[in-house]
Specification:
- By secondary structure, the chain is α/β, with parallel strands linked by helices.
- The protein has one domain.
- Helices cover 34% and strands 16% of the residues.
- The protein is built from 8 helices and 10 strands.
- Strands 1, 3, 5, 6, 7, 8, 9 and 10 form an 8-stranded mixed β-sheet that branches. Strands 2-4 form a two-stranded antiparallel ribbon.
- The radius of gyration is 17 Å and the shape is globular.
- The protein starts with 6 loop residues before the first helix and ends with a helix.
């Protein structure tokens, strides 16, 4: 199985794309089949890896290149000990207001460390991976970025991955990465707020809801909402028995909570 089916067709169409930043005329990847890696450990026993594409980097280090036609396919490994105030963001295709107010809206490190402390997961890997929010060249993602990430996951003995896209285009990028990881035997779960794109790319496990780009892991400074999304999505990693996408049931509970002023 391939990370991008009919990749040569995508490459041809991409070469003709104007580069419009609003993605007008952009040739989104369309896959028919999806790989699938079974979960071999229960959540409280596994080492979880986090991949986000908010364009985060440590202040004082090299930023992502947002001007390249094909995008920047490098990544940053950021230790869990790095505080939110030490991060900067290269945001393109999404509004970074939410993640700057509360990084857990896009990078749920604090929530996942809580889960580690409470034995919901075995551990959060010592570093998390940050990708650019703007990588139009999907073929480069498949050929360069995704295999390198899979190698790092093997190096750290990561046993499952949570993927959180920031922009519309990120949904394609992380969908391709998820496919590669599962082809290498690492189960994934991807949170989506743009089902149309993820249904085209076909990451193996997708949990979607009617959220907003820029705060895909939950509204900023609303930890209960963030936990609700993560709880349901992570537990589905164990229960999915074939590639599929499933809607999170977070909206109704959140609306009731907000109406009661419980935030």
């Amino acid at each position: 199985m391939e990370t991008i089916e009919k990749k040569s067709e995508f490459t041809t169409r991409f070469s003709k794309w104007s580069g419009d930043e609003s993605l007008v005329g952009y040739p989104f990847v369309e896959n028919v089949h999806a790989p699938f890696a079974p979960v071999r450990r229960a959540l409280p026993m596994l080492n979880l890896g986090l991949i986000t594409s908010a364009g985060a980097y440590i202040d004082g280090t090299e930023a992502f290149d947002l001007e390249s036609h094909g995008g920047d396919v490098s990544f940053r490994e950021i230790p869990n000990e790095v505080e939110a105030g030490e991060l900067k963001y290269c945001a393109k295709g999404y509004d970074d207001t939410a993640v700057r107010a509360d990084r857990n809206a896009q990078i749920p490190v604090d929530r996942l460390l809580e889960y580690e402390h409470n034995a919901v997961i075995g551990s959060l890997n010592d570093v998390w991976w940050s990708l650019s929010s703007y990588i139009p060249d999907a073929a480069a993602v498949a050929d360069e970025l995704a295999p390198k990430l899979a190698e790092r996951f093997e190096r750290y003995e990561v046993q499952a991955a949570l993927l959180v896209p920031a922009s519309r285009l990120c949904h394609q990028t992380l969908g391709i990465v998820a496919r590669e990881l599962e082809m290498q035997g690492i189960p994934t779960i991807m949170i989506s707020v743009d089902r149309a794109i993820t249904d085209k790319v076909r990451p193996p496990r997708t949990a979607y809801y009617a959220g907003e780009t820029g705060s895909v892991a939950g509204k900023p400074n609303w930890s209960q909402f963030q936990r609700r999304i993560l709880d349901e999505a992570l537990r589905w990693t164990e229960t999915f028995d074939q590639p599929t996408s499933r809607k999170l049931v977070v909206e109704l509970e959140t609306a009731v909570e907000a109406a009661r002023g419980e935030r």
